[in-house]
Design brief:
75% of the residues lie in helices and 0% in strands. The protein is mostly helical.
């Protein structure tokens, strides 16, 4: 019986691409199965939390900018 091939872990850019695709709901089945077989859940959780925090901060900044421009 042959030993299963060792696949390298996902790189930062592959994980970031997967997190962004999942956030917008456009993750492909091929990439999803790749993520489950080669990725670590803790890395995806950390990137997801960071992405969400940055997204919220950008939205807040955008709202403040629009309100500032509307008041002037």
């Amino acid at each position: 019986m042959s030993e299963p091939e060792k696949q390298p872990p996902l790189g930062f850019w592959e994980m970031l691409q997967s997190v962004l695709a999942a956030a917008f709901g456009v993750q492909s089945g091929k990439n999803r199965s790749r993520d489950f077989s080669r990725g670590k859940p803790s890395h995806f959780i950390l990137l997801g939390v960071l992405f969400t925090g940055i997204f919220v901060l950008l939205l807040l900044a955008l709202v403040k900018l629009v309100l500032h421009l509307a008041a002037g």
